[in-house]
Amino acid sequence: GNSVTQMEGPVTLSEEAFLTINCTYTATGYPSLFWYVQYPGEGLQLLLKATKADDKGSNKGFEATYRKETTSFHLEKGSVQVSDSAVYFCALSDPTNAGKSTFGDGTTLTVKP
Amino acid sequence: KAGVTQTPRYLIKTRGQQVTLSCSPISGHRSVSWYQQTPGQGLQFLFEYFSETQRNKGNFPGRFSGRQFSNSRSEMNVSTLELGDSALYLCASSVGLSNEQFFGPGTRLTVL
What we know:
- The complex is a heterodimer.
- Chain A has no helices and twelve strands.
- Chain A has strands spanning 3-6, 11-14, 19-21, 23-26, 32-38, 44-50, 56-59, 62-65, 75-77, 86-93, 101-103, 107-112.
- In chain A, strands 2, 5, 6, 10, 11 and 12 form a six-stranded mixed beta sheet that branches. A four-stranded antiparallel beta sheet of chain A has the order 3-9-8-7, with no helix packed on it.
- In chain A, a hairpin with a 2-residue loop joins strand 7 (56-59) and strand 8 (62-65).
- Chain B contains no helices and eleven strands.
- Chain B is globular.
- At the A-B interface, strand 5, strand 6 and strand 11 of A face strand 4, strand 5, strand 9 and strand 10 of B.
């Protein structure tokens, strides 16, 4: 079956530091890949997505590239802010199973001023 | 456009009771999915409905059930509640052809 493995947290960084959160996946076929962010007391918000190999998703300074050869979708940001503190989830969706996403365990990011 | 709404936001129940949670998707979205989020198990897929039909189901016992109405609103029901059912229940909607899901704020269920 499908699975997503995320870098274990928590991650603590100083403001303006570089962020990488690793994500690898196992899937049959050609899944779409996503990063979601969850702030305390809220649901998940889509941060970025990529639907095919070599696509780069980007939003709010965050980027991730769909690497089929390494089955990875690592999240990066060049300079984090305190407001980026949240839980980040990597997820995949199999196009033959629309409506069912498989999530990683989540990585808690804390950014200190 | 209004986002996905879930009611109630918080619920406290006792073991053995049953509960019904409601989800209103984004207007025009015909697919509604439900997930259970717990610290130990993370996000787990419960089921998905599209045009009033259950298309996908996760590995949860039969105590967990759902339905979708003609206006795409969805409800999920948990009968004979157990302590382990305490969780954040998240609803997500999508257009149906797209894999991109939009999540509601969740319903926090506490079982005492």
